[in-house]
Every structure is written in C-alpha cells, then in structure tokens.
Amino acid sequence: MKGYIDYMDNISVSPELHDKIMQKVYRQQKPINQNRVILRYAGMAACFLVLLLCVWSMPNLFDSPTSDDPGMNGGQLGVIDIDPTPGITSRISNALTLNRIDSQMSASRIFVDGHFWHELTNEQTRALLPDLRFPISATAHYFGNGTLFDVVVAELTSSGGAAMVDELYLRTVIRFAPGAIVSCAIYNYEPVESEIYDVPVVAGMLDVGILNDGITLYVATFIIGEIAYSIELYDNETGESGLNRLTEIVSAIIRNGSMDLSILDNPVIPELRDEQVSLSEARSDPDFGEYLPISVPVPFQFDNARRFINQETNSLMTFWGADRAESIRWFVSMPTEHDIAHIVSVHEHEKYDLSLYSIPWAFSVPDEFHYYFQSPVFLAEELTIDVIRARTVWESSRSGATPGWQTSQFSVLYDNVLITVSMNGVSPEQIWNMITEIERR
User: What is the dihedral of CA 18, 23, 27, 31, to 10 degrees?
Assistant: First the structure.
C-alpha cells in the first residue's frame, strides 16, 4: 500500500491528531490482490530481519498489574477450560491464561538481502497445519540463498480472500519460524505462562478500541522443538469468543506436534537484484535509464541510486538532495496492478488536487476519493503543468527549514514504464521541465 505516508511529509500534528489521522488513512486502504499482499507482509520474522517501524505505547490504557488490583494476579485477565484430548488427558493443563498487554509493536517491511517468497500449495499448508478448522493460506519467506526464515499463515474468507476486520485487521495471523520469532505484544512485567499439552504458552490481550471500537487483540507465543510460533487474533466479538478461538488454535497446533519444515526446502530462487549503482550506471540501465531526468535544479546533487528486482517489483530508485529539507525522489519501475488501479483522469480534479482540501488531507478528502488522492497515476499523454501544480503546495513555514515547495507523490505512466516522483524544494515548473526533457529525447 505504497504512497499513503508521502503526502503527510513535513506536516506537524499532535500525537493525538496523528493517531486519528492514521486511523482514517488505514481505513481507506483498498487492498489490491489482498490475499497476496497481506500474507507477504503481515508478519515479518525475527527481530534481526525486520525494521520495527512503530510502537504504539499505551501506558494509560492498562496500568501495570499489581497485587493490589482487585481480581488480578500478576496480570492475569482470565482463564478458559479446554476439552481434554482422549489418551493424553494427564498431559494437558486445564486453562489458558491471558495476560494484559501493555503496548503493541508493529513490524513492517523486510530488509533482508535477497529476500523472496513462495505461496504454499494447499497440500503444503495442510501438511503443516492439519488440525485448523478454518480456511487458510500461507506464504514462506526465504533468504536469498534459499534458507527458510519465516512462514506467514492467514485466515481466508469463504471467497478466498484474507479475512479482515473493519478493513484493517486480519482476523487471524499465524507465524512460525526456525529458532525465534518476534511477537507484537509488549509486557511491562513477567507474564504468567499457561501449559498446553506440556508446552509453555504466553498469551495476552490488548483492547485496541483506541483505534477501532470494539476490536480486541489476542496474542499467543510458544515453542515446539526448534520452531517458534506467534498467533495474532483480532476479534470484534465481546465476551469470551476471542479467548475461546485463541485457545482452539493454540491447542490444534500444539496437538499436531513438531512440524516437518523440510517440505519447504529447495525452493525455486527467482531473479533477484538489490544493489546500489552510480548515476552513470543508472543512466545506462537498459530498462529505465532513459526515464531519469537529464538535469536537476541547482543546488541539488546526486545522492544515491538503487536497482531492485524481486517477484513483485522491478525498479530503479534515485535520490538527489540539497539541504536537509530538500530532496528529489525519482523512482522508475514496471507498473503493478496496484499502480494501474490508481490511474485517474486529469479531469477528475477531486481525486488529486491538493488545493481542493484542507490539511490534514486524511480528514478532509472524501472517502470515495482517498484511495486515488494518496498516490494518483496520470497517463503521460494527459499530463500538463497544471496537474503538477495541483500536486504541489508552497509551505511558508516548515519545521527546521526555510519556506519552500512540497510535492505530494504522483506517478506518470508511459506504456509499460512508470515514473513516480515526490519532492521537497522543487517548483512545479522545474518538475515539468524534468519530465518534458525525458519526452524530448
């Protein structure tokens, strides 16, 4: 879901307003290829494999548990009896304990050299998780050398798409990996462990109604053999339904015993590329070099460029900079389905014109236009300087910087090549000149 952050660049708001803005932004996302995208990025492996983008700290949502809390014991929220399995009754505890989660950590975007993935077949998925009672789909993530580091499993709806709650939360995500795995739950105390079939389980609950009314996050983590598991379940039901569901999933996985991950060995390694290139190398790129600007405004200087290919993206990313608040980000890529879905006519001003709405745009842009507004794509033959002016605003006072131009992200589609730009400190006329220089080649 690229692009939704870009038009928020350099706009200062209070933390409370930021939370409300991001709630609004997230709710307006219309996932393209929802099943693929969500499975790919929903749960990203161990801590050394991910960039942790944000931690929502909510110290006032739940006070740290103490022995003085009525009805509380070490953070325990509640327990639920589970039905013993015939033949192993003596090896199962009778309760799953929920601990209060103090805050939630959200992981995004893998930064692994050569990362690639494969969507598992139904046979592979069911071989790994045979006892789950709901439809699922899974994606295995690998290092560039073909070594498995993470598997992400998501619940599916009856139509085959990833199940969502309030267009934001997956109902259930199960992640497992050899060794260790990061949980989204943060406890500011030592959580109470449950024991299911002799396996220690840490389970917790967080009321995330601060972002979406009535939504509760349930989390469970445990290790079987050399495989670590994390379950994240968002539920909009009240009462014990979420706890019941979490217990059923944990019990089903543990009851199945240690997984045989060898069925995921020896994957087909796709074409992969991720390397920094010089400006001359970038300009010489046979696919995208001719779509780079011939010249950039003074005083901008070339900073860096990166050539990237994976199963989803084929792109050349280039950056120029001046002072700390001025930058030119110029990306050239093969268009994706997501990009095609963002195409707007230059006559549809309500879908892209910044001047029609007030800041913060997350509040002022009507819901039906928000999807396009955040990252519009224009056909090259329709683009005019007036369109660029409509995506550019003059900021008279930017924090820590002199007044200047800010361009909200937009893209230009040339047949099978897409140029995506986002800039600070560049006038509409200068942007227009950079684009038309390419067309005059």
Answer: 70
- Rounded CA gap, 211 and 22, in Å? 9
Predicted TM-score (pTM) of the model is 0.64
The helix (H) or strand (E) run that includes residue 338 is: helix 337-341
DSSP notation for 63-110: PPP-TTSTT-STTEEE----PPPTT-GGG--S--PEEEP-EEEEEEEE
Q: Regarding beta strands 227-235 and 273-277, do their DSSP bridges make them parallel or antiparallel, or are they unpaired?
A: unpaired
Q: How far does Cα 186 stand from its chain's mean position?
A: 19
User: Which residue spans within 179-321 are E strands per DSSP?
Assistant: 185-186, 194-196, 199-207, 216-224, 227-235, 273-277, 301-309, 314-321
How many C-beta atoms lie closer than 10 Å to residue 189's C-beta? 13
| Residue listed under structure tokens 């684009």 | 435
CA distance 291 to 283: 8
Tokens coding 4: 């939704």
What's the rounded Cα separation, in Å, for the pair 39 and 50?
15
Contact 351, 7 (CB under 8 A): no
Question: Which residues does residue 154 pair with via DSSP β-bridges, in sequence order?
Answer: 137, 173
End-to-end CA distance of the chain: 33
CA–CA gap between residue 197 and residue 43 (Å, rounded) = 26
pLDDT tens, residue order, the chain (441 aa): 333 233 333 333 444 444 444 444 333 333 333 333 333 333 333 333 332 323 333 333 233 333 333 233 334 443 433 343 333 223 344 568 889 988 877 554 446 668 899 999 999 999 999 999 888 999 999 998 999 989 999 988 765 565 544 444 557 899 999 988 878 788 988 999 999 999 999 999 887 654 455 678 899 999 999 999 999 988 765 557 788 889 999 999 999 998 999 999 999 999 999 999 999 999 999 999 999 999 999 999 999 999 999 998 999 999 999 977 789 999 999 999 999 999 999 999 999 999 999 988 989 999 999 999 999 999 999 999 999 999 999 987 655 556 789 999 999 999 899 999 999 999 999 999 999 998 766
Q: What is the distance, to the nearest Å, from the Cα of residue 91 to the centroid of all Cα atoms in its chain? A: 39
Burial 359-383 (b: 16+ CB within 10 A, else e): ebbbeebeeebbbbbbbbbbeeeeb
CA quadruple 66, 70, 75, 78: dihedral, nearest 10: 170
Cis peptide before 360 (omega within 30 of 0): yes
